[in-house]
Design goal:
By secondary structure, this protein is α/β, with parallel strands linked by helices. The protein is about 50% helix and about 15% strand. Strands 1, 2, 3, 4, 5, 6, 7, 8 and 9 form a nine-stranded mixed β-sheet that branches. Strand 1, helix 1 and strand 2 form a beta-alpha-beta unit.
Length: about 350
């Protein structure tokens, strides 16, 4: 970053988000750091979202709107990356809220530590919590404690069970990050030559390995800087089809192989592989419209998982299974909490 006030490009994929879009964009426009390029990518929305984007662009020169045919979130993210001119890149989902200090504090962390990526903490919120969240997100706060992570790919793969993060304390929690792109600030060059694979549900899982492998250093900011809106009927929480599970198996398999090739044990992807192929089988059994093709796909996925797991040492396989058991228990509790959110 050659200047003290670098331009930060914020990419917001927008699709049928008229209900919450204003909360999201207003939180970006209200950032304490002002040198922003705000890219609203209208991914063929069929509601008023596209018009709302144009309205924002007409009133703030920092906002650029790109209207495109619907191609999915990966396509929208790629369009944003292609149009971004900032020294740093950030992403925000179209129904989430960024804390007022999000960009400022993540940028300060990058500049202080010379890291490649800065990440903050986030809270999950229900729709009923939006008013108090908007108020809280507008309140200035001090920069949180910084923790450096010099092995991002290993941290991503090994630190993912909430139970063990609690037992491990603050240093372990700081090493946790998932494949989500929001509540991050990236140096632009990290994305050179990298684009999301389009036409898939799990585009972020596919990107995690290649992105974190080229990331030399991550800095964690111990501060809530993002609010993730939970809706039980969203794609993340309700999309449960054979195609969805198969895509998750395939994405985890790609990342599993990639991670192994870099000498890192893919603990997280082991869980993703085994959980998705199991869910795929259970879903097909419960479906009254089960198809032969889908069943064969599940058999192929099972064989793929078996062959990949066989590449692990007995010791690593045992640790993978142990972490997967812990994570499955946590996910049952997590799903109940999400569906109980109002």
């Amino acid at each position: 970053m050659p200047v003290s006030k670098p331009l930060v490009s914020i990419i917001v994929p927008v699709y049928n988000a008229e209900r919450y879009l204003r909360h999201c964009v207003d939180s970006i426009l209200g950032q304490s750091y002002r040198n922003l390029q705000i890219l609203l990518i209208d991914d063929g929305a069929t509601d008023a979202s596209g018009d709302m984007c144009d309205e924002y662009a007409a009133h703030d020169s920092r906002v650029t709107v790109i209207h495109k045919h619907n191609g999915g979130i990966a396509s929208a993210q790629n369009a944003g990356l292609d149009a971004a001119t900032g020294d740093c890149i950030a992403f925000c989902d179209n129904d989430d809220i960024m804390h007022n200090n999000n960009v400022e504090h993540l940028l300060m962390a990058l500049q202080k530590t010379h890291a490649d990526m800065a990440k903050g903490r986030w809270n999950q919120i229900g729709v009923s919590e939006l008013p108090v969240t908007i108020e809280s997100a507008s309140q200035a706060q001090s920069l949180g404690a910084l923790t450096l992570i010099d092995d991002p790919l290993n941290a991503y793969q090994s630190v993912f069970c909430k139970t063990l993060r609690i037992l491990g304390g603050a240093k372990t929690e700081a090493r946790y990050f998932n494949e989500a792109n929001w509540c991050r600030l990236y140096r632009r060059e990290l994305w050179d030559g990298l684009r999301f694979k389009e036409g898939h549900y799990a585009q972020d899982i596919r990107m995690a390995g290649p992105l974190y492998a080229r990331t030399k250093r991550v800095v964690d900011v111990n501060e809530v800087l993002y609010y993730w809106l939970q809706e039980p009927d969203s794609v993340t929480h309700s999309q449960r089809t054979p195609a969805f599970w198969h895509d998750n198996v395939t994405a985890a398999a790609e990342n599993f192989e990639f991670t192994l090739s870099h000498g890192v044990v893919p603990y997280r992807n082991y869980f993703g592989l085994t959980a998705s192929v199991r869910d795929e089988k259970l879903g097909l059994r419960e479906s009254s419209r089960q198809q032969i093709h889908a069943s064969q796909t599940n058999n192929d996925d099972y064989d793929k998982v078996r062959l990949l797991v066989a590449r692990l040492s007995h010791r690593d396989r045992l640790k993978c299974r142990t972490l997967a058991i812990i994570r499955r228990g946590e996910n049952k509790i997590y799903d109940q909490l999400i569906h109980a959110m109002q």
